[in-house]
Amino acid sequence: MALRPDEFYDHALAASDAERRLPLARMTGWDISPFEEDGLRVSPLRPPVLPEPPRHGEDPSDCGSCRERDEGIWFNDNWRLTRITGVGVPLVLMLHPLDHHDMADLPDELAAELGVLTAHIVRHVQALPHVSRAHVYRIGDGAAHLHIWFFARPAGQAQLYGSWLPVWDDLLPEYPADVADADAAVVADALVASAGGRRRAAEDAPRG
Questions:
Q1: With contact defined as beta carbons under 8 Å apart, do 59 and 46 qualify?
Q2: Which one of 20, 110, 126, 127 is most buried, by most CB atoms within 10 A?
Q3: pTM of the prediction?
């Protein structure tokens, strides 16, 4: 059984200093770290807050993702793909189920489709010129509606390898939007060709 919140806090405090600051993470010593260790400090460890505050969209009637279900660059009957703007890496995409699900309550059929779509999206992002890797993340603490992140790592930027990539993304200047829009369209078209779906929401698709 996992430690209770108070037990976890006490366990972590035992490794902290008098100001409740833990030692710097080993990751800060990696050569891909965006920060130099000299002068870097860990924030004081705060005690647990229970109950936790609700995430955005815990109530489906107040869920932004549900309200925006017609927005995106690619759709099928269960999912939509969007481009996240204002980022520093070449491309950041997000995959959302159209209906209100989180990972833990995702029906098995959608979970299986998620796996297939994830593989296809990664394949198409990595096929873009000057992109070496597509990183895939599911966090889930900010919003209750499932959302899967896809980060394109630029080719040749060895310092942007690995788990620091989202931090570097937040530090880099905004990537040219017209280039990202064009690359997002390439990925969306490739996804239509490889996995089906369409470029517009069902409500906007032409009727035959």
A1: no
A2: 110
A3: 0.92
Amino acid present at 106: L
| Chain length of the chain | 208
Contacting residues for 157 by C-beta, under 8 A, at least 6 apart: none
Beta strands per DSSP E along 143-200: 148-154
pLDDT in tens, 50-67: 999 999 999 999 999 999
Distances (CA, A) of 99 to 63, 79, 93, 115, 208: 11, 8, 18, 17, 25
3-state helix, strand, coil in the chain (%, to 5): 35, 15, 50
Q: What distance in Å separates the CA atoms of residue 46 and residue 16, rounded to the nearest whole number?
A: 12
Using CA atoms of 112, 125, 77, 57 in order, give the dihedral in degrees to the nearest 10. 80
Question: What is the torsional sign of CA 143, 149, 154, 159?
Answer: positive
